[in-house]
Amino acid sequence: MEDTSQKTFIVEIANLSKSYRRGSQIIPVLQDITFDITEGEFLALMGPSGSGKSTLLNLIAGIDKADTGTIRVGGVSITTLSEAELAGWRAANVGFIFQFYNLMPVLTAYENVELPLLLTSLSRKERREHVELALNVVNLADRMDHFPSQLSGGQQQRVAIARAVVTDPAILVADEPTGDLDRVSAEEILQLMDRLVHEFGKTIIMVTHDARAAGKAHVIKHLEKGVLTG
Amino acid sequence: MLIKLIIRNAFRHKLRSILTVIGVAIAILAFGLLRTLVGLWYLGVEQSSATRLVTRNAISLVFSLPISYKDRIRQVPGVKQISWGNWFGGIYIDEKHFFPNFAVEPRSYLELYPEFVLPPDQKDAFIHDRKGAVAGRKLVAKNGWKVGDLITLRGTIFPGQWEFILRGIYRGAQKSTDETQFFFHWDYLNETMRKTVPRRADQVGFYMIGVTNPDLAAEVSTAIDKTFKNSLAETLTETERAFQMGFVSMTEAIMIAIQIVSYVVIVIIMVVAANTMAMTARERIAEYATMKTLGFGARHIAVTIFGESVVIAVIGGVVGILLTFPAAHWIETELSQFFPVFSVSPVTIYLDLLAAFTVGFIAAIFPTWRGATIRIADGLRRIG
Prior knowledge:
The structure holds two protein chains of two kinds. Chain A is of the alpha/beta class. Chain A is 32% helix and 27% strand. Chain A has a single domain, classed as P-loop containing nucleotide triphosphate hydrolases (Rossmann fold, 3-Layer(aba) Sandwich), CATH 3.40.50.300. Chain A has helices at 53-61, 83-93, 109-114, 124-137, 153-165, 183-198, 211-214, and strands at 9-22, 25-38, 42-46, 68-73, 76-77, 94-97, 171-175, 203-207, 219-224, 227-228. Chain A has a six-stranded mixed β-sheet, sandwiched between helices. In chain A, α4 packs across α5 and α5 (153-165) packs parallel to α6. In chain A, 49% of the residues are buried. Chain B is built from 15 helices and twelve strands.
């Protein structure tokens, strides 16, 4: 029997449902999802296309609203927060890693990583320290003045990871982080994410199709037609 | 950082941005020149002296008044000075070389019009030579004349070949003074008329009257017209401003049309800029969604889009303003027969800047609304 007495749940999801309206049709995407994520856990969400895994990730990250059910992250019930409160909450608590990196093409690696810090009260000097530290973690300090177009896909994803961790958020959400990368770069990214969990104690929730990527996770959850199957 | 983002975004698609800047620049140039044209049309009215009255035939300007009226007008209380003249309408070489030319009583006319500044020796030479004439320095420069030259005009209202000796070149006391006019002795005209068409002799087209006090202008005007009531040639006396306004009002419909066109130009470029900004915003929806994901609010997105639009429009506006000055100079130089003065006023520059800013601001409203209100999840789906 699993001992849960020592575990701290950073994410608690209960009876979560979400549907989309397409014309007069209502399409259920997630149905009655309930599960918890332990602090410092690396969780992979798997499932076929349209199974609702990205929607679930968006709900946990506070960029979409559930129809019913509750999500508590770090003790905060994010399902009751307003749009503006959610924006502030995301800035402080969530780091995002996207499949296509989503870097600002006109900003350098340094400036991209600095972007989330503009919403904090840090001074320019403090921001520089944070950015340099984050770029050192992803081993890209020597490329800080490069624009995204001057970096490879793997390097761009590392910049995106530096941007995700620069505010020191409690959780990192990653939507297909290796989906646009070759095998070598994907492996590097997965190792980096593994390092973030083990060295820095981050909680990572990753959506992936890739069984190899999911193999790095501590826990794998499967979704099928909006329902957790395992 | 946001400013950096705005400026770099503004020139991300260089060709598109440059074409938009050129479009705005041309629109602002056209707007500025049209506004200047309209402003200059009313300049004669604005610059009219408050102490000068014009007396003409009550029926129409085409009809003349007897020269004998001058002594009776001079006796009207409040009249300080009087001069007289005729629109001559002479042609130099051909119609393309048009310039305004008047027969005037030189001494009194130059006293009434201190804005025409002549060197004392030239003024003296002009006054003492019955065939003498003076011309503005722009007119002189355009035709390559110099003092002492013989200038021949072909009369239209007063037929014949009329020869004048250029005795002086006047300059304007203000930048806006017309320096393309030509004046000669009314006596020369009148003496020739006596010999050739006696019935047209001793007639003047208008009297210019200086009053002792501008506040008395209305009373003096009434008194002059009352003096000639029920005479063969009744008079109409009005302030120089009203007299000028009479000419301007004949073409007011054209001026209103030009004003409307100037605003239409701005509206057209506003639509073009709005289309450009809408395309830009549509391409960047995923970036705005990413910014929102990171915690940036609608306000930040709005600043980014508005900033980009205003930067492009204002750069276009500044380029347009910088082009307005050489364009205005070219018009003043090459088309001086139509536009003797074509100087761009500070008000026009402010209007240009305001128009450019407005173009940028309004063009950004719809893209900003789209960028700021898009759902993050929808925006993120646009990538790849």
